[in-house]
Amino acid sequence: MRRISGTSPYEARIGYCRAVVGGGLVHVSGTTGPDPETGTFPDDVAEQCRNALAIVARALEEAGSGFDKALRVTYILPDRRDFEACWPILAETFGANPPAATMIEAGLLSPGMKFEIELTALA
């Protein structure tokens, strides 16, 4: 088993890592989309979606995987009405290899967070 750390300040505070590779799978922790330069959350949900996907992409790459090997994703948004703005971005990201997916409406850790993604992929 191999653990992949990210840059989120929550990893050390809460006690988790960005991803774990084991048993032929990559399990990517729930990932939100702060601005990579400022660490703040953009007001635009689509921008947060893009930022979160970039973080996930780095973890998958480090694990030797990619979005084309995604098996399952869970999307979590505080407001389900925001999800539609993410659809084109997600469709482009997964292309011809879409994973099984679930969208859940729930509160996130910080009020500025509008999008979170959790993903499992083949290693």
Architecture overview:
With 123 residues, this protein is an alpha+beta fold. It has a single domain, classed as 2-Layer Sandwich (60s Ribosomal Protein L30, Chain: A), CATH 3.30.1330.40. The protein is built from three helices and six strands; from the N terminus they run βαββαβαββ. The chain has a six-stranded mixed sheet with strand order 1-2-3-6-4-5, covered by helices on one side. Strand 2 and strand 3 (25-32) form a beta hairpin. It is globular.
List keywords for this structure.
123 residues; alpha+beta; 60s Ribosomal Protein L30, Chain: A; 6-stranded mixed beta sheet; 27% helix; YjgF/YER057c/UK114; RidA family protein
